[in-house]
Amino acid sequence: MAGAKSDTVVQILKRLSPGQRVGYIVMNETEAAIAAHMHEPLRLAAPEVTGFHFAMVDDYHLKLIHSANKQLFAWTINSPELLHKVLDVGVDAIVTNFPTRALQAIENRLVQCGDVMHPRKGYGHDL
């Protein structure tokens, strides 16, 4: 999967490599982003993935994105609280600067949900 903050770059990537999954960023945190229409979740038709700023992730947007046959990736998820929030919504993937912390939070959730085997012991993760 290739993605970019620039819609122009995303469109070029898709044109040059039609079989490559590509994604674009959805965000509304600055006036510049809104002026560039980056807050519009379905502004590009061809890309298969949307990368949502974590503050915009909610049930409404997930349903909207999925109804357009796209995936919703949430960025940048750097705390267990944010991770739990976006997992509760049901995002398709996360982007994080701390993958070990994210894995630990996911493992803790699996244990809390009654996973028969503790993930770390059962799946061979060595953190």
Strand content: 15-25%
Number of strands: 5
Mean pLDDT: 90
Contiguous uncertain segments of 5+ residues: none
Largest sheet: 5 strands, parallel
Instruction: Give the end-to-end Cα distance, rounded to a whole number of Å.
Output: 26 Å
Fraction of helical residues: 40-55%
Helix/strand order, N-terminal first: EHEHEHEHEHH
Characterise the protein shown here.
The protein has 6 helices and 5 strands. With 127 residues, it is of the alpha/beta class. The chain has a 5-stranded parallel sheet with strand order 1-2-3-4-5. Strand 2, helix 2 (31-35) and strand 3 (49-53) form a beta-alpha-beta unit. The two termini are 26 Å apart. 20% of the residues are buried. The model has no long low-confidence stretch (mean pLDDT 90).
Blueprint of the fold:
Elements: E1 2-4, H1 7-16, E2 22-26, H2 31-35, E3 49-53, H3 59-67, E4 71-75, H4 80-89, E5 93-94, H5 99-112, H6 119-123
Key phrases:
single chain; 127 residues; globular; five-stranded parallel sheet; alpha/beta
Write a brief structural summary:
The chain has 127 residues and is of the alpha/beta class. Helix content is 42%, strand content 16%.
